């Protein structure tokens, strides 16, 4: 199975409601789609969201990295030389993790198709379905309470609540959400780097003292501040999950060595795809650190690849793959089935993506 062509396109999928965090606000998913074509006619699909505020990867950067580096290195290569081909994606350009993730997943898609196995089985095959949380954007306490109520009505029993835009308001926001959601709903929070270490400890302990029962806090401090993260982990009552601090397997190992966080968030767009995500998961198994799998604001092709990994690995105990259910429509044909909180992995070979609804994909010429 030889690679003959790599095609790029763009899709635009409107969100149900604007997505707001301490870092950004957006109202649609605008992703780059990758098609890796082969001489057998098989096509591998990948996707990358431009998340400049987090990964530094803009639309132009994703397209440029694939066009000028990755595609040139892969042309004519045999998918069956799988390890070599995957390593080429990682080594032909530095950083650019979203572009790498998009091509990496397309290659896994092809490899699964080549051997007629779904990717989740290739990776481990732990389970066939998972349960995701849903994100509550950061807004006024009243709006967040309303969104929380709505999510519980849709059947979600775990909310990921964004905080940190105005730290003075965060305890109030959480009180409103807890009251609206009821006591049995799991609440995890994501500060997206917004707090100072001591401020984080103060806010988190205040939340627990008020009986808010926070499951864990995601990335309370700046991404590079590993010492600050460790300080929060040691001093707050609330477990800490490292997200923006962990891009690479090396970051994950360092965080775990330092005991700077209790949990690790794996995202394909941060680590460059399944190839490196597997290394993070393996390291986490060794350290006994449970992982969450998360996504950016992404449509179904790339979230589907994360679903395959989540269904493969038992060390991934928390699922934050709500990208597709935040979207107003789903132009992707095939892949996992997203039925609100329940996600069921596809049994089709590879990633199970059959294509994109006609008229929804705009090809980019290069
Ligand atoms: Mg996060």
How does this model look, in words?
- With 366 residues, the chain is an alpha/beta fold.
- Helix content is 39%, strand content 25%.
- The two termini are 23 Å apart.
- Bound molecules: magnesium ion (MG).
- Residues 190, 192, 218-219, 243 line the site of magnesium ion.
- The site of magnesium ion (MG) has 5 residues, from loops.
Shape category: globular
Oligomer state of the chains in this structure? single chain
Using the coordinates shown, work out and report the CATH topology of the largest domain.
TIM Barrel
How many strands?
Answer: 17
Which sequence of strands runs across the widest sheet? 5-6-7-8-9-10-11-12
Which percent bin holds the helix content? 25-40%
| Number of separate domains | 2
Q: Given this structure, which CATH class of the largest domain is correct?
A: Alpha Beta
Give the biggest beta sheet. Answer: 8 strands, parallel
Uncertain segments: none
CATH superfamily of the largest domain: Enolase-like C-terminal domain
Strand-residue fraction? 15-25%
> What is the straight-line distance between the termini?
23 Å
Can you give the mean pLDDT? 97
Rounded to the nearest angstrom, the radius of gyration is 20 Å
Number of helices: 13
Please trace the helix and strand order, writing H or E for each element. Answer: EEEHHHHEEHEHEHEHEHEHHEHEHEEEEE
Secondary-structure blueprint:
Layout: E1 3-20, E2 25-38, E3 43-48, H1 59-74, H2 82-91, H3 97-114, H4 119-123, E4 129-131, E5 134-136, H5 141-153, E6 158-162, H6 170-181, E7 186-190, H7 197-209, E8 214-218, H8 226-235, E9 240-242, H9 249-258, E10 263-266, H10 268-271, H11 274-287, E11 291-294, H12 300-312, E12 316-320, H13 323-326, E13 332-334, E14 337-339, E15 342-344, E16 353-356, E17 362-364
Parallel strand pairs: 5-6, 6-7, 7-8, 8-9, 9-10, 10-11, 11-12
Antiparallel strand pairs: 1-2, 1-17, 2-3, 4-15, 13-16, 14-15
Helix pairs in contact: 1-3, 2-3, 5-6, 6-7, 7-8, 9-11
The structure holds magnesium ion.
